[in-house]
Amino acid sequence: MKQSGGIHELELIEKITRLMDNAFRIPGTNIRFGLDPVIGLFPFVGDLISYGISSSLVIAMVRKGASGKLVVKMIGNITLDYIISNVPVLGYIIDFGFKANERNLNLLKEHFDEGKHQGAGWPYLLAVLLVLLLIMVVLAVGLWLVLIRFFQWLGSTA
After folding, report:
1. Given CA atoms 92, 94, 96, 102 in this order, what sign does their dihedral have?
2. Whole-model pTM above 0.85?
3. Predicted local distance difference test score (pLDDT) of residue 75
4. pLDDT tens digits, 41-79
């Protein structure tokens, strides 16, 4: 494996995954959570930040040699997590249990250790990436419009 600044890339991916999904434990329980649901407390922006971090992890996993088929599965995990996270109240609760980064790390380990999730899938991957980019643009524009309306409403009540 390549070394990056003295740390193996896979070790860095594992550390960030642990920070995002399992860094903390609720005292007296086995319930673990990371920064993902904490960042998600900030409506819209927090979920976008979390999605960006998860996307960065997927990109790092691609650099480690993840197959196209595997990358499609990983993108599906982070996108499902992003969609679920945007559901008021229920999304926040589910965010504690659906740990997309951990799922993706496990998929990557299965890919290397057991030879699972093989396959090119690059044309499909490109189509998925374009759809995801479109979704993010639509969500960002929607957020922008909501903020504009909010500030217009604030101005009219003052």
Report:
1. negative
2. no
3. 86
4. 887 788 888 888 998 888 888 877 777 778 888 888 998
For the chain, how many structural domains are there in total?
Answer: 1
Distance CA 44, CA 53 (A): 14
Domain extent for 57: 3-157
Q: Are 32 and 56 in contact (CB under 8 A)?
A: no
Determine the Cα–Cα distance for residues 155 and 149; give it in Å rounded to an integer. 10
CB 79, CB 46: distance < 8 Å: no
Structure-token match 């649901």, residue found: 37
- Kindly state the tokens that stand for 3: 């070394």
CB distance 66 to 108 below 8 Å: yes
Provide the CB-side half-sphere exposure for 46 (13 A, CA).
Answer: 15
